[in-house]
Amino acid sequence: MNHMRLSGIPKRISFVVFVLLISLPCFGQDYLQPNEEVILSFRTKNNKQMYLVKDKSNRYISYRFGTKDKIELKYPASGTNSWEKFKYSSYLRGGGITNEGMDLNYVYFTNGDFQYIIYQTYYAVGNKRKIGLKVINLKTNKTTDIEGNPKTATGTLVDFRDNQLLEIGDELFD
Description:
The chain is mostly beta strands. The chain is built from 2 helices and 11 strands. The protein has a 6-stranded mixed beta sheet, with no helix packed on it. A 5-stranded antiparallel beta sheet has the order 4-3-2-1-10, with no helix packed on it.
């Protein structure tokens, strides 16, 4: 029987290279677990990433934000009662440019002294799409807007209008 062999490369080195290649995915952070699906994800203009995910069986929802190598904030820390910790609000006005149509969608939560607002908006006038994250310091009322790159977006917040998984709030953040 003829065995294929990489010419000039000893078996030991071939094995080490193989082990390193299959272990590479373990070095980064897992923003999405095998039992989860993306609700919305995007990269920011500073190359960070935001993931809003849920368990495929709707057992929990989770927010994750950070670099490709490190999750800087995961909320909530556990999935227990996680759906109760988030709210969704929206505003929809059709009619296109003539009626200054808009589609505003927000998922938000509070963690300590900060409120986090994930936003996905569209304005017909100017055909403007925006996606990102606003962080409001509740003590100082200072807002930081972390803009996302719409071209990197996967998923949508719009599905929360009808799925009854999140409490519907009435706050609009634009």
